[in-house]
Amino acid sequence: MIDVFSKAQSAASFIRGKSSVQPAVGIILGSGLGNFATHVEGAVRIPYGDIPHFPQSTVVGHSGHLVLGHIGGVAVAVMQGRVHAYEGYDMNQVTFPTRVLGLLGCRTLVVTNAAGGIRSSLAQGSIVAISDHINLTGTNAALGPNEPRFSVVAGGGQRFFDMSDAYSLRLRTLAIEEAVRQEFLLTEGVYLAVLGPSFETPAEIRAFRTLGADLVGMSTVHEVIVARHMGLEVLGLSLVTNMAAGVPAFGRDTADQIDHEEVMEIGRRVEKQFTCLLTALVPQIVFRGSAESAKGAENKS
Questions:
Q1: How many domains does the chain have?
Q2: Strands 108-117 and 215-217: what pairing?
Q3: Residue 200 annotated among the catalytic residues of the structure
Q4: Annotated catalytic residue: which of 8, 37, 114, 166?
């Protein structure tokens, strides 16, 4: 049986044969956000089905292409859609693309998703920077034998790895500052993950609010767990596409029923704002971090 590391190496090798781009930033696009990939310059599009061992998306709004190119002079690998455990994939398959992004050279991972809003002050169409997560999926993507060869950054690949700063404060700060420049409010929030595919009940949402959750969704956390195992820096962005069960939309007294088409529609509506934010952020993730590190080294000397 071929191990996951060897499969990931095979996939990465195939991708390198299709594009000379060596991505520094990996971006995973959630439901309704896939059109961001059309803004990648010099794009090479590879269907997931062509990549060895790569899982294929089956959900509407996840087109299933890996797009390599540049945004603001930064080499990127953009995933138009992801796979979920509720589609029948195991966690090794769900997180396999994240492993491949790390082996391709990505040292930063931007994960995005469509989420239900639990905090009543959140409006549909809000973009939220994830500050932390609660994993209620009942499993963990790092289960099984540890694979230290996935250490792509010094300190990565450990059996027991720290999750206290799973979502980078540096990257959240950059995102919030950029939102201010673009004249909209980017708040922070805690994302709670469930398996799905059913939306949550009102009683569950009340329980999640008690636990401290602001957002709820069916993805992201296992990608983040694997990214942190490898040593990648992570930025998480949630688009509030609907209010969770039993939570009235901002400015309303009653809650609406939830459906996937609404999720897609809100994604289309906020596409321009989301694209402007992420397009401006990508160069800052790489260049501001490098410049500030160099400046700090000069000050110490």
A1: 1
A2: antiparallel
A3: no
A4: 114
- Quote the domain boundaries for residue 80: 4-291
- Please give the model's pTM, rounded to 2 decimal places: 0.90
Kindly report, residue by residue over 95-110, the tens digit of the pLDDT.
999 999 999 999 999 9
What is the distance between the alpha carbons of residues 32 and 267, in angstroms, rounded to a whole number?
Answer: 4
Question: Quick check: is 16 in a domain?
Answer: yes
Report the alpha-carbon angle 30-81-42, nearest 5: 110
For residue range 76-134, what is the model confidence (pLDDT) as tens digits?
A: 999 998 999 999 999 999 999 999 999 999 999 999 998 999 998 998 889 999 999 99
Q: Distance between CA 119 and CA 59 in Å, rounded? A: 26
Rg over alpha carbons for the chain, rounded to the nearest Å, is 18
218 catalytic? Reply is: yes
List the catalytic residue out of 151, 255, 260, 265: 260
| Closest CA relative to residue 27, chosen from 275, 267, 291 | 275
Question: Can you tell me the distance from the alpha carbon of 21 to that of 41, in angstroms, rounded to the nearest whole number?
Answer: 11
**Set 8, 77, 218, 243: catalytic member:** 218
∠ Cα 175 180 182 (to 5°): 95
Annotated catalytic residue 260: yes
Tell me, yes or no, whether 296 lies in a domain.
no
CA 154 – CA 65 distance, rounded (Å): 30
Q: Name which of 97, 89, 86 is nearest 137 in CA terms.
A: 86
